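In the laboratory, one determines a bound structure by crystallizing the protein with its ligand and collecting diffraction data. In a computational setting the workflow is compressed into a single prediction: the sequence and the ligand go in, and a structural description comes out. We illustrate the idea with adenosine-5'-triphosphate.
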Amino acid sequence: MRSARAGGTTGRTLASDTWWICWRELKRLWRQRVRILMTIIQPVIWLTLMGNMFQRMASIPGFPARSYLDYMAPGVITMVTLFSGIFGGITIVWDRRFGYLQKLLAAPISRTAIVTGKMLAIAVQTAAQALIIFGLARAMGVGFAAGALGVPVLILLAVLLSQVFAGLSLTLGALLTSHEALMAVVNFLTMPLMFTSNAMMPLDMMPPWLARVALLNPLSYGINPMRALFLRGWEWAGLSRGVAVLAVTAVAMAALASAMFRRSIA
Amino acid sequence: MSVAEAIVQTDKLTKRYAGGILAVDQVSFEVPAGTIFGFLGPNGAGKTTTIMMLTTLIKPTSGRAVVCGRDVVASPDLVRLDLGYVSQDVAVDENLTGWENLYLQARLYHLPAETLRPRIEELLKTVELDEHARRLVSTYSGGMRKRLDIAAGLIHRPRLLFLDEPTLGLDIQTRTRIWEYIRRLRDEHGLTVFLTTHYMEEADNLCDLVAIMDHGRIVALDSPAGLKARLGGDVITLEMGAPGPRDGLAESMRSLPMVKSAEQGSNGIVRLVTHDGDRAIPSVLEFLGSKGIRVSSVTLKRPSLDDVFLHFTGRQLRENDGGADYRRMAMAVRRARR
Ligand SMILES: Nc1ncnc2c1ncn2[C@@H]1O[C@H](COP(=O)(O)OP(=O)(O)OP(=O)(O)O)[C@@H](O)[C@H]1O
Ligand SMILES: [Mg+2]
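The predicted complex, in structure-token form:
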């Protein structure tokens, strides 16, 4: 007979183990809050500069926003989310390297919790970052068509997006056990992910091949509905499609990460 | 030792790593409950690999291991509940305080909320970190980190504690203090301690039983005294007061109790090999006294575990290579300091 406590994979221990793994990550993030804040401030500076530089772009006929700044604000949220998600999983390689992972593995906790706990921490981090950027953007005069009720939806989109990339980076972290290799792959991925999405440029201003690629890029499914919330308000079709695609992808990535991780420690 | 009281039992336990290295080669042994059991061997002997199999961290290639009554492959979750593991790397989270490290560990072992705080306080006192508990571990010294790590391994009151090189690279004082904790844990809580070391001194001082491991095999397993006895015994050297050779002295001493062999050098010095040097000396002196021979000096030399190691493996244990230890410890700490 396996007791619930010893089984380690029952719902209750998975939930509590996930929370305690997350607690550890959040403690660290809190102690590094200045660094995290810098990761927000930097894109906001960008946003301001680009808002000035590309202001003329907004007057191109067909450009979908009042100002480039309005257009870019959701793009910046997405970019910060992408970075938080994709670099978030790297902690697992450090844990492996300095022996902490073994300590976790010798404990009677659910293996899955190591993955879900880290993902949860990334979700919390992303929610906080998205809120701060949103606040700064509003302070800089960026409009938000969806109104107050749109804010939690905006955060939800950012969190779902972060989970997709957190799952990706944890999967890579399970496959590549060297920190250097993982950093190289992650760095190699981020820029193409950014530029093959509609974060910087509307889909219908892209060459057709790029627009097709952008439709396969999960980032686009976050930015489109976010941008709608900022510029036009509630567009249910696009919003539900975005949430659905991201939620399914996030769950799939979490499952993949967890499977790869279990395989790597077997 | 009977099978019933063995807390660890292995049968032809083997690990071959991907790449072909045979790290542990058909090892069979038992650890009786309540003992301090030492794995002694040079770098690369397979000590850590054995511990990782016993703590369910890696799967054996073949063979079996039963830890705390459960098979490590069949029911790893149950085995984990009963054992504490302090790895060779100093695995503490330096972004947390000392207290938080123990708190997290307690949560991961599902300790009930009401026992958690007193347990943490008690352990912090045991390892003398209570005054530094609220400091970030990144400000701790190597020895403090190691002590915290050991405390973390004890948080759930395991029946069996694995300590992989608990005193690697620590100064003599800290090392002695860690030995004291380990002894006290065994005496007060009946804890079984399974440790690895490549310090002869440590195995000799601390362990009830020592297994000597070399190239993935156990070449000898016994109490430290028993291992030394297998080398033949203690050597007593006698110098006589009065000058001149004494014919037949060595021969006549061979019949004394506990004396295994006796030889007399041309300089008149007598060398005796005995079972138990301490007890042999009085009777040897009495015998010489009855013959009217005055003894000017007696020396007793017992074989060290160093000699034991040399005897069983044909190689010197690199015990004195403190520089290498220090480098390894520094490496572990550096790795920990991101
Ligand atoms: N993950 C691994 N993959 C391949 N080979 C390994 C791995 N870990 C250890 N080995 C090899 O297995 C052998 C035994 O290593 P192990 O770490 O068990 O030795 P040890 O007795 O603990 O040594 P030390 O005193 O240096 O800690 C060594 O030859 C080592 O190179
Ligand atoms: Mg080792």
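The pocket of magnesium ion (ligand 2) is lined by residues B 47-48, 88, 164 (CB under 6 Å). Keep in mind that any predicted model is a hypothesis to be tested, not a measurement.
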